[in-house]
Amino acid sequence: MSLPILGMLQGAVEGAGLAMLGKAVGAGIAVIGAGIGIGRIGGNMAESMARQPEIAGTIQNAAIILAALIEGAALFALVIAFLIK
What we know:
The protein is mostly helical.
């Protein structure tokens, strides 16, 4: 029985298997980091809205903008990870 990751590493021509493994690890780290960032924004937003309900709209707008910036950074990281040759 052969594991898929070991199959990528075996028979690699000029490190192509290691490059594919690097792409997978880089993409995974980028997605995990974005998930953590957006989760923290959501949690802190809910806490802030509970403390000061009168400025909930302002907090929500700022949180949406920050989440979009994090998604943009994650997309950039994914593109760079997939450009590895």
